[in-house]
Amino acid sequence: MLTRLIYASEPSQPLTPAAVQDIVDHARAANARSQITGMLIFDSGAFLQVLEGRREPVSETFGRIAQDKRHRHVVLLSVQTVDERLFGRWAMGFAAADASGRDQFLRFGGSDRFEPYTLSPGSAVGLLLALSGG
Prior knowledge:
The chain is an alpha+beta fold and 134 residues long. The chain is globular and about 35 Å long. Strand 2 (37-42) and strand 3 (47-53) form a beta hairpin. The protein has a single domain (2-96), classed as Alpha-Beta Plaits (2-Layer Sandwich), CATH 3.30.70. It has a five-stranded mixed beta sheet, sandwiched between helices. Helix 3 runs antiparallel to helix 4 (121-132). It has helices at 17-34, 55-67, 102-109, 121-132; strands at 2-11, 37-42, 47-53, 71-82, 93-96.
């Protein structure tokens, strides 16, 4: 059995594009070692991320994220047991939550802005899938 965990958070300080890329690169390497897959959406004000894999490594990864000083207001949106991965193509996919996603933000969140804290678990998965190209 697999676990799918979705959370939202805010950066504790402004992040440069290089800092975001460093986070994504680090996540890809760490997730590959732990057989975790997932997707991250980010704009300057918020993260939305899904992690999929065996329960223990997913829980450990989320615990590190929740304690990471680069995040604040970490909110667990969903955790569930699933039979298959939806984001299995990437150790960590990434999409910027920019103006090109407005239609998807409106479709899944009811607003043309990226507001991950307001998403239901189903809407969060839908948005993550839509922006992943999957």
